[in-house]
Amino acid sequence: MSLANDHTRKLLTLVTEAAIESSLVRDLDRLGAHGYTITEARGKGNRGVRNAGWDASSNIRIEVVCNDETAAAIAAHLKAQYYDNYAMIMWVSEVEVLRPEKF
Amino acid sequence: MNPIDPIILFFLLGLFAGLARAELRLPAAIYDFVSILLLLAIGLKGGIELAKQPFGDLLPQILAVLVMGFVLPLIAFPVLRYLGHFKRADAASIAAHYGSVSVGTYAVAVAYFGTREIFFEAHMPLLLVVLEVPAILVGIVLARGISNETRWGAVMHEVFLGKGIVLLLGGLLIGWIAGPEGVVSIKPLFFDLFKGILAIFLLEMGLITAAQIGSLRQYGLFLLGFGVLMPVFSAVIGAVLGWALGLSVGGTAVLATLAASASYIAVPAAMRVSVPEANPTLSLTAALGITFPFNVLVGVPLYHAMAERTHAFFGA
Lengths: 103, 316
What we know:
A: alpha+beta; Alpha-Beta Plaits; 4-stranded antiparallel beta sheet; two-stranded antiparallel sheet; 2 helices; B: Na+/H+ antiporter like fold
């Protein structure tokens, strides 16, 4: 499926510790994300197995669709604020959306 | 000699299944549900008791236990920092875990004394709540100093509105308002099934403990020694305090157990938010991989014996 050019947005995906969900959500709102989707996640990384067996070892996956500037602002803020001390990975991809005015 | 409690066998089953990498995994929702039931049941039991006696009589005990909550992490911190050579943030975080309490360990003690029909003061859940909080504050201050960087609003939210405190205090209030007669209608779920629920909880705790034991090898002997000796030392303080406050032998043993137990729910969550540079694996390995199984398997009977000796030594 190919849509018009201005329908392209960034999809920012973030896998991190469930412990910081509430402060992350505050950051996302403040930095201009119009919405986000959070799902429970589990897996393994360089901070060990995070198997979601109980609160302290559970992960979440946050997805945000937004424009380039917002994605850059969120990525820069999260990197500065959380990368040192929390298990967190983040990647950005291009997606095409049907209703650009929403994002 | 009493036969071994079946709930302890459930813990051992979980431990074995985890270590053997059996295909056993309880859904996270089950663990949540079971721990919610335990917290509410413990709160309700305490609340019913509060309805029977004037709150003012308990005030000296509450204050004394509060002081103990501030003192225990202050003792643990220098040991970890200077004998264990841990980083400041790590030492502070582990100290906070050991100053606070574990509801799971408390529940095991309740079951232990219940089975043996040993009396203990029924307002213990109130002391449990009181002991949960101070160590967290001490831990943060030890890691940070009283700095403006700490977002105290977020910390307070985490401390007082965490799952543990809300459910324990909520249960206490409901039990207190409803009173012994009012609670009869919900008794089958919360009190009659208590040991069954505890058995499932301990099965899961066995699995979680087994997962921590892997990281134990990484951190070595000091943590192992600390995880066993610190609770025994704290239990001595708890036992002497229990005697001084005029608690029964059972009550003294329960207070010793509370002092000995190390938090693995409230404190890790609070530390993750307020002292993020502390390595959570260290404190969880100690609290869950060493101290929880030690307290469940050896500690509770040991603290019972300790309480008996304390009462015999100082006189009733």
